[in-house]
Each structure stands twice: as C-alpha cells, then as structure tokens.
Design a protein that fits this description.
The protein is an alpha+beta fold. Helices cover about 25% and strands about 30% of the residues. It has a domain of about 120 residues: Hotdog Thioesterase (Thiol Ester Dehydrase, Chain A). Strands 1-2-4-5-6-3 form a six-stranded antiparallel β-sheet. The longest helix has 17 residues. The model has no long low-confidence stretch (mean pLDDT about 90).
C-alpha cells in the first residue's frame, strides 16, 4: 500500500501501540463442562477455579456475576477495539451481547448439556469510545427450552446510557462424552 508523504510522517514508531494477550488452554474448561451444571461451571469461572475462555482474554471482557437465567460481563474498551473511524468496533459490542445471552442460557442448563448461538439480532443505539468507561452487558433468559432457548442482552456504558440490545436464539444439545 502506497502512502503519501504526509501520511508517512504520522505513521512512525511513536504512533505504534502493542498489547500482549495470554490465555489458558481452552481444553481445561471444556474437560470440566460435562460434569458440571451450567451455573456451577460459570460460578467456578468467576471464582478463578476454571479459566475464562480465550475470547474473554482477547477482547478484555470478564464474567462478573451469574444467577439462574442471567449473566453479566464487563469490559473496558480501549483503542485496540477501534474501527477505522475511531469508534469501538461493533464486533466487540456484539461479542459482549452474544456472550451474555449465551451464558444466561448456560446458567439454566444441567450437567452434560451445552449450547451454541443460532441467531443473534443486534440493535446498535449509540456509538462507544474508549473514554466511555467500563461497559456492562447483562443477558437474561426469555424462554428456556429443551432444544432451543431464547435470551436477550443489553450493553450500557459507565454513565448508564444504553449502547446496544440483542435478542438471541440458542441451540441446546447434549455434550459429547456426557
């Protein structure tokens, strides 16, 4: 890609940013899953007894609370989450919404049962920047199901402003080896 002289002067070493991402082997958590109810699994993750999934480490989100049919994540967006126009990329917000909705459903599942998202509809209501502070995303089960469950989730910024909402459909299935 060719850059003009003005652009080259702004893309120097002082403009570089870096971030180190470390995570645990996801097989550790996956191996524990069949023997634990969904809520017990998530509670052990919050307590640090099970590692968080790599996606959480990658984007900087943490599961902070879980109850029967509800899950809450927090995340502090930074510049590494930006899209080309200087706003937090919608994919980060979507990841939070998908995670909260999914974990809300997981909290209702017995041992040996898993889930996966089959549909997610996101409504973005306002932009998010790194100076928006810690964002909170809470998911809630709307209707549990033996084959398909339904959940909703919302993201708010540090001031409580609603950033985005989502509705989710999730396939419920027996885990292999359970």
């Amino acid at each position: 890609m060719a850059l003009d002289d003005d652009a080259n002067t702004t893309l120097n070493d002082s403009a570089n940013r870096s971030r180190l991402v470390e995570w645990h082997d996801p097989a550790i958590g996956a191996a524990a899953m069949p023997g634990l109810s969904g809520i017990d699994y998530l509670r052990r993750m919050i307590a640090g007894e099970l590692p968080p999934p790599p996606i959480g480490e990658l984007v900087g989100m943490q599961l902070v609370s879980v109850g029967e049919g509800t899950a809450t994540f927090t995340c502090l967006p930074d510049e590494s989450h930006y899209n080309p126009i200087g706003m937090v990329h919608g994919g980060l917000v979507c990841t939070l919404l998908d995670s909260a909705a999914g974990c809300a459903v997981q909290s209702t599942l017995p041992a040996g049962v898993g889930y996966t998202s089959i549909e997610l509809k996101v409504s973005y209501l306002r932009p998010l920047r790194h100076d928006s502070g810690v964002v909170t995303c809470t998911g809630t089960v709307v209707k549990p199901g033996r084959r398909v469950a339904f959940a909703e989730a919302s993201v708010t910024d540090a001031s409580g402003a609603l950033i985005a909402t989502a509705t989710s459909s999730l396939l419920v299935f027996p885990l292999a080896g359970a």
